[in-house]
Amino acid sequence: MRRLSDSLLKLARVGWGRREPEPEPVDLSDVAHVAAGLAKPLAEGAGLEVSVEGEAAWVVADPVLLEEALLIPITNAIQHSDPGQTVLLRLSGPSVTVEDRAGGIAEEDLPYIFERFYSGKGPSGSSGLGLPICKDLVERMGGKISVRSEKGVGTTVSIGLPEAEPDA
User: Fold this and answer.
1) pTM for this one?
2) Nearest residue to 59 (alpha-carbon basis) of 143, 2, 137
3) CB atoms within 10 A of CB 73
4) Which of 5, 74, 83, 166 is the most buried (most CB within 10 A)?
């Protein structure tokens, strides 16, 4: 119930009376490392690691909203991964992917994962609000989000943002 209440409060902030993004040039690597650091206690409590690798670019984004957007797939990956695994944030230019080797998302659920309150066909313990909130945050910053997943293999959430001009 607490998780649902927290998600509903976030949804209310994102949907109505929401703060407009304040875009600025941001080092994507810095924000990814901050988000990974914030998730570290949760990951350690679950017997997991959170790791960041790769080279990132400067992007145009709101650093607070970007951090919030990254925490959603990181938290999802932690909740669905088995102890001993690593949640990986892979940086590549103006994009970051959050990868896990957890159970994956069933193919029949993939078309609906960005719909509010959709939590899949089985018991997931999810409110169905995380990825819709993440998508809204990313798109409000001019970015794009996509998800690839294979049941029994894992999930990759990719977030791409506008690259900052070199003289910004």
Assistant:
1) 0.83
2) 143
3) 27
4) 74
pLDDT value at position 108? Answer: 79
Rounded Cα distance, 37 and 52, in Å: 10
What does the alpha-carbon distance between residue 52 and residue 25 come to, in Å, rounded to a whole number? Answer: 20
How would you classify residue 96: left for phi > 0, otherwise alpha for psi between -120 and 50, otherwise beta?
Answer: beta
**How many residues does the structure list for the chain?**
168
What is the pLDDT of the chain when averaged over all its residues? 84
Strands 58-61 and 24-27, sheet pairing: antiparallel
Identify whether the C-beta of residue 130 lies closer than 8 Å to the C-beta of residue 72. yes
Tell me 160's DSSP state.
E
Instruction: For residue 159, give the 3-state DSSP assignment.
Output: strand
**What does the alpha-carbon distance between residue 12 and residue 2 come to, in Å, rounded to a whole number?**
15
Average pLDDT over residues 111-130: 64
Residue with tokens 């080092």: 27
Amino acid at 49: E
Between the two ends of the chain, the Cα-to-Cα distance in Å is 44
Q: How far is CA 87 from CA 96, 120, 154, in A?
A: 13, 22, 10
CA distance 129 to 24: 27
